[in-house]
Structures are given as structure tokens and as C-alpha cells.
Write a structure and sequence with these properties.
By secondary structure, the chain is α/β, with parallel strands linked by helices. About 35% of the residues lie in helices and about 15% in strands. It is built from 16 helices and 15 strands. The strands form three sheets. Strands 1-3-2-8-10-9-14-15-13-11-12 form an eleven-stranded mixed β-sheet, with helices on both faces. It has a two-stranded antiparallel ribbon with strand order 4-5. Strands 6-7 form a two-stranded antiparallel ribbon. Strand 2, helix 6 and strand 3 form a beta-alpha-beta unit. Helix 11 crosses helix 13 and helix 11 packs across helix 14. The C terminus is likely disordered.
Length: about 550
């Protein structure tokens, strides 16, 4: 037993005898009941986590808000220009019948086939389904039925999200031929909104980092780098214009890290905003689904389509989501941390936002360890059979899940509960010290990633600039290192973070830039394999 030297030898013998007679039969019985299938898709815990700072809100079905109306949008001459248009722009082309959804699907399918292998960002192209859904969208429009801003818009799903008749590989060689007869809740929501699924995009193996059974996903802004984070395919494919938007997930940085590396706008929403039925589960109190998009405005549109209570996900709720396009930002007080990008601070201030120095204070000093205990023990509960059957020996990177889940096997139950009590203390302290309407700061600071996920707070990651890559082979290279920041809000105030990000992006063009996939610049080429290896993120490091 770990950390149990306070027991005498006689007491240890009593414990051993009692465990054999009572504990082991209970453990084996429960394991037989609920742990024979991997992935956490069945038998969710009855212990339900809530990120709400207040429990006064109504559980009424969410009301949709009014979307901005664009005028004068004309179809570009080149397919590449089309591939970098926003959801609202593409929607206007479809609504005005300048392009059909079927044409749009073809344009993006061609890009997925051309660039997916280069970026190692695509697992399965759902071409037959895509054309079927696109033609249906066109038929509805001809009949006078318009389903909203996602009508006919192509997209991709991280390959932990189940779609019937297609493989859901979880990025792992152990499950690469798995077909789940499940229609994930988020996929249902997007299908009912008229969106068109083009591809299942790369997830790091079992949703850990960017290594999967087929390779390692690259950063479109610098093909010598990797994209980091398990939503690697969603981030890289959106950045490179292979899809207008994609759905990813985060348990501990898998939206924020790849969004920052690949220079795309992404939203990690308040915990419980989006239902997770049909999605690989790492931790039922940490997992969140969110969009990768061209802009914060697009993130708002996608979130509005996929939010709402999932009847089979006990943690999902009808969380309020007021119109982010209608927020009066001049009435907001927004903090900025020491590591905030000052360009964001200055531009928001110029628009009338009250910007103040800020520090999110709390006394809990073990946030990283709390997240580690929570995620690893929960993950092991969902992959107990996988570990016991020795399948972890075939895992792609042995110092990732295999090592962490072996450690998790010896976490005492009492100390897991103590970690959740410490998490509750952290949540109370964050709530009491969140004295601003939102704050701006680094989106990939590891401590902040841990605290944000433990508390369940939303953050919008936005690109704010570019800088020269390290060890550039030539001064003329077009490869860049992206600069990003995060806009954080209290739980259930996603609309505030989005409103601030929308205003900032209305004043800048960073989110409109295109990565140099085809043209790296004079005298520049990428060695294959790359000579510069970016190590996987390790716990405790940003």
C-alpha cells in the first residue's frame, strides 16, 4: 500500500484478509457489470459535475439568437478563395444560389484529398455521405426551406465522435477498424442544422496529443512542426482551409494547444454546454466539445447549433447563451494578465472596454495534480479492460497513456475523493475572485489550462500575430510561428468572451491569413522526416 506506513503489521494483515474476503469480490462484480467495454460510451457515472457559479437558471430549451446578415457577398473566381471564406459568407453564397452545397462539398473534398496526406490530419473521408447530405440541402433550398446559417456548410468531426456506418478509430491502432452503431448527439445537432459532414479528422491516439496510428499531424503554418493536442486534425484542417469548421474536444488542453499552434480561432465552451453521447470519454467531469473556425463569429454560430441538453448525457444542460453580437462591450470590465497580448488590450480599450490589470487569485496549489488524478483515474475506469488485456503494450507512445494509467491503478480511492474536494475548494475560490466580466491572457499556460478545465470555464483562442520561426533556413521563408491569446469568461458567460473576440477580430486581419502549404518561400523546403522534433506536451509544462 502506498503512503500507509502508519498501519501496524497486525493491521496490515487485517486489511489484507478483509480485502480478499470483501473488497475483491465487489471489485470483480462491478468490473463485470460495467467495465467490459472500452471508451466510456456506456454506463456513465451517476455522480454529475456542474460548472455553474449559480444554479438559479432555468432548464427551458435554449432560444436561438439573430445572426448578422451579410450583403454584397459575391462568389470568388478561385476555389482556394472560396475555401477560406467564413461560415456567414459561404452561407450567403448558398442562400443567394451563387453556389450549391454539392459544389461546395466538392471543393472541400478536393482539398481534403490533396492536403490531408501532407498534414496527416484526416482519417476517413465520408464522401458518399457528404454528397448525400449536400444534395438534400440543395433540395430543401429549392423547396423554400432554409435551415439556418449552417445550411449546406461542410465540416469535419474529430474521430472520437461516432457516425453510423463509418469507422470511429479513436486514433488508435487497437481500434482502427471499429465501427460504432451510434449517432453522436453533436452529429445529430449538426445534421439537423443542415451541415454536411466531409471527414473524420485525426485525433491523437485515445485523445492524447497529436500522434495517431497513421502518423503525426503537422502544423500548416510550419510543416516541420507538429500541431500538438489531440484535436490535431480539427485544428490543422481548419487552418489549412480543408473544412470551414470542425468539432474538437478538450479534457486538458486539446482545443487550446492545437488552436494556438495552428493559428485558428477556437472555443472551449463552458462544461456541460454540448452533449457528449456517442463520444469517447476520458473524464466525465472534464470532457468538452467545441468548434474550430475561421473566426469568433463562426464559433458563436456553431456553438448555437450544437448546444443544448442531451438526454443521455447527465452533465449537459440548457445553459443560457445570450446573443454575443448584441453585447454592449462598453459596459464590461475586462482584466488582463501579465502575459496578455497587449495589442488585444489596447484595441479593446479603444472600443470603450474598461481594461484593468488582473490576477486570478486562489490558494489551491495542486491544480495540476488534481487534474492529473481526475483525468487519469477516470480514463482508466473507461479503459480498464484495455489495460488488463495488455493492449496498452501496442499503444503508439508508451510514455503517454500506458505510463499514466499504470500510475492511476494505484491511486487510492480516498485520495481521488480528496482531490475532488480540493477541486471544489478551487472552484469556490475562483468564483469569489473572478471580479471582472472576462480576462485576457495566454491560452496555453499549463496551470491556467488545468484551472480552466477543472472549473469548467470557457475560453476563446484567437490569433493575434506572427513571428519568425526559430532556426529559419532563409529570411524569405513564409513559414511563421503564430501568436495567440485567450479571452476567458466565467462559466455560462461564453457570449461575453465571444463578443470581445468578435470585436477584436473586426479590427484585425490575423484570423484571415492563409498558411503557406504550397509556397514556403524562396530556398525553403521541408525535410522528410522533419529534423526539428516538437516533443509531446508533458504534465506540468506549457
Amino acid at each position: 500500500m502506498l503512503d500507509a506506513d502508519f498501519f501496524s503489521d497486525a493491521k496490515m494483515l487485517e486489511i489484507e484478509k478483509g480485502a480478499e474476503e470483501l473488497n475483491v469480490p465487489i471489485i470483480r462484480s462491478n468490473r463485470k457489470l460495467v467495465a467490459s467495454v472500452n471508451g466510456g460510451l456506456e454506463n456513465p457515472s451517476c455522480l454529475v459535475f456542474s460548472a455553474a457559479f449559480s444554479h438559479d437558471h432555468s432548464d427551458n430549451p435554449p432560444k436561438r439568437f439573430n445572426y448578422p446578415s451579410l450583403s454584397g457577398v459575391e462568389r470568388p473566381k478561385s476555389d482556394e478563395d472560396i475555401s477560406y471564406m467564413s461560415i456567414l459568407e459561404l452561407g450567403q453564397l448558398i442562400k443567394s444560389k451563387q453556389i450549391t452545397s454539392e459544389e461546395l462539398a466538392r471543393i472541400f473534398l478536393n482539398r481534403l484529398k490533396r492536403y490531408g496526406p501532407i498534414l496527416e490530419s484526416v482519417i476517413t473521408i465520408t464522401e458518399e455521405l457528404a454528397y448525400k447530405q449536400a444534395r438534400r440541402a440543395d433540395e430543401l433550398l429549392e423547396q423554400g426551406t432554409y435551415l439556418g446559417p449552417l445550411h449546406g456548410i461542410p465540416y469535419g468531426l474529430k474521430d472520437i465522435i461516432a457516425v453510423p456506418h463509418y469507422k470511429t478509430t479513436w486514433g488508435s491502432k487497437s481500434f482502427k477498424n471499429q465501427v460504432l452503431d451510434i449517432e453522436a448527439w453533436v452529429y445529430k445537432r449538426l445534421k439537423s442544422s443542415g451541415a454536411v459532414l466531409l471527414a473524420k479528422l485525426v485525433t491523437g491516439s485515445l485523445a492524447y496529443d497529436d500522434v495517431w496510428f497513421g502518423g503525426r499531424t503537422r502544423n500548416p503554418w510550419n510543416l516541420e512542426e507538429y500541431s500538438t493536442g489531440s484535436s490535431a486534425g480539427s485544428a490543422a484542417s481548419t487552418s489549412a482551409g480543408l473544412v470551414p469548421f470542425a468539432i474538437g474536444s478538450e479534457t486538458a488542453g486539446s482545443i487550446t494547444y492545437p488552436a494556438a499552434r495552428c493559428g485558428v480561432t477556437a472555443l472551449r465552451p463552458t462544461f456541460g454546454t454540448v452533449g457528449r453521447t456517442g463520444v469517447l470519454s476520458l473524464s466525465e467531469s472534464l470532457d468538452k466539445l467545441g468548434p474550430f473556425c475561421r473566426s469568433a463569429a463562426d464559433c458563436a454560430i456553431v456553438l448555437d447549433a450544437i448546444r443544448g441538453q442531451d438526454p443521455h448525457d447527465l452533465s449537459s444542460r440548457n445553459i443560457p447563451f445570450p446573443d454575443p453580437f448584441a453585447v454592449d462591450i462598453t459596459k464590461l470590465t475586462v482584466g488582463y494578465l501579465e502575459d496578455a497580448e497587449m495589442d488585444v488590450v489596447e484595441k479593446l480599450h479603444s472600443k470603450g472596454v474598461n481594461m484593468v490589470p488582473f490576477k486570478l487569485n486562489y490558494t489551491v496549489d495542486s491544480a495540476q495534480g488534481i487534474l492529473n488524478f481526475t483525468m487519469d483515474v477516470d480514463m482508466l475506469a473507461h479503459f480498464d479492460e484495455w489495460q488488463r488485456s495488455g493492449q496498452d503494450d501496442d499503444y503508439e507512445v508508451q510514455d503517454q497513456w500506458p505510463l499514466e494509467l499504470r500510475r492511476a491503478r494505484v491511486v487510492p480511492a480516498v485520495d481521488y475523493v480528496q482531490a475532488q474536494r480540493a477541486r471544489g475548494k478551487l472552484m469556490r475560490e475562483v468564483r469569489e475572485n473572478f471580479k471582472v466580466d472576462a480576462f485576457v491572457g495566454n491560452a496555453t499556460d499549463w496551470e491556467r489550462v488545468c484551472v480552466g478545465n477543472l472549473v469548467g470555464m470557457p475560453v476563446v483562442v484567437i490569433p493575434t500575430g506572427f513571428k519568425q520561426i526559430a532556426d529559419a533556413p532563409t529570411n524569405n521563408t513564409r513559414r511563421r510561428c503564430t501568436i495567440t491569446t485567450g479571452v476567458y469568461a466565467p462559466p455560462e458567460h461564453d457570449h461575453i468572451a465571444l463578443a470581445l473576440a468578435i470585436v477584436y477580430q473586426s479590427m484585425t486581419e490575423y484570423h484571415r491569413q492563409r498558411p503557406p502549404i504550397d509556397d514556403l518561400g524562396p530556398d525553403d523546403s521541408i525535410p522528410n522526416p522533419p529534423t526539428r522534433i516538437i516533443p509531446p506536451r508533458q504534465l506540468g509544462k506549457s
